[in-house]
Design goal:
Elements: H1 2-18, H2 23-58, H3 77-108, H4 113-127, H5 130-145, H6 150-174, H7 178-186, H8 191-202, H9 204-219, H10 223-228, H11 246-253, H12 259-292
Helix pairs in contact: 2-12, 3-6, 3-9, 4-6, 5-6, 6-9, 7-8, 9-12, 11-12
Length: about 290
């Protein structure tokens, strides 16, 4: 009796699942898909217009020698080098701390009060305006060293990158199935070995995606570098001297009445846009590989 009842329930469930949607529901779905597509296209037009304007004004002034000359010689090589240097300093400071903090939050301290405090601070850092970060770095590094420098700029960028890396590392580790942890424990692996040899290895694509996103965000920041690295029209004298960067170059010169300098600003915008686009594409590529795995 119970078997026949179960079979009837299964047949009715299958019939319900295979039954086509009502006409009104399908019509509503089609309409909402059209509306979503239309709004996406509408939002794409302003972005496309900005990109077109940058390319139209900047490509005409792009010359090969600009990549080897500083601003004082009508180039932007010093700004490119300064941007890479400060982003590199920020990455070296934030990546180890961010990954270790994410591991602690995901694996070793999920429920204690310290974890909740760290998550709260990380959430605050995520929403802090970049200009506030610049003022903080100014008070911590610039006032201590008595000078603007690329080191101070890298420190400011590390503060911006840190919460992104912590958040993505924690979420990437949480996505690793519990079965892998149990299998490692069954083979005699300690918690430390399981975390760093199994879980962390499996989460590397997701962690790398977060790092790429953090670098892409930091590369386009202007306000923190105004307060910390200032600017230089020539090559930097070292880590403890004012250093040029692409965002600050655009900020300082975009109102210049000189047509040649104005052209240089638009060309610099292409380079900065290309750097941000490159890191964004890298993050998308890594995330797609992570999903395939």
């Amino acid at each position: 009796m119970s078997e026949s009842l179960n079979s009837e329930i299964d047949e009715s469930l299958v019939e319900t699942l295979l039954r086509p949607l009502p006409t009104q529901r399908r019509l509503f779905t089609y309409v909402m898909n059209v509306v979503s597509f239309g709004l996406s296209v509408l939002a794409f037009f302003p972005l496309l217009s900005i990109l077109w304007e940058i390319m139209k004004r900047g490509l005409s002034g792009l010359k090969a020698e600009m990549f080897f000359q500083p601003l004082i010689e009508n180039g932007f090589a010093n700004a490119i080098l300064g941007t890479i240097l400060m982003v590199g300093i920020g990455a070296m400071l934030s990546i180890p701390v961010g990954i270790m903090t994410g591991i602690f939050l995901a694996e070793f301290g999920r429920t204690n009060q310290i974890t909740n405090l760290v998550r709260f601070i990380n959430s605050i850092l995520t929403g802090v305006p970049s200009i506030v970060v610049g003022m903080f770095a100014y008070g911590v590094v610039v006032l201590a060293t008595k000078q603007f420098s690329s080191l101070a700029g890298g420190f400011a960028l590390s503060v911006i990158m840190l919460p992104v890396i912590v958040l993505t590392t924690e979420e990437a580790l949480k996505l690793i199935s519990i079965q892998q942890r149990l299998a490692s424990a069954a083979l005699g692996g300690t918690r430390f070995q399981t975390t760093f040899r199994i879980v962390l290895t499996a989460a590397i694509p997701g962690i790398t995606t977060g790092i790429s996103l953090a670098i892409a965000r930091a590369a386009g920041e202007t306000a923190p570098l105004i307060f910390t690295a200032l600017f230089s029209q020539n090559w930097s004298d070292g880590l403890l001297s004012p250093t040029a960067s692409l965002p600050v170059l655009i900020f300082n010169l975009y109102n210049s009445p000189d047509p040649e300098i104005n052209q240089l600003v638009w060309t610099t915008s292409i380079i900065l846009l290309s750097l941000s686009l490159f890191f964004s594409l890298v993050s998308r590529l890594l995330s797609s590989k992570s999903r395939l795995k």
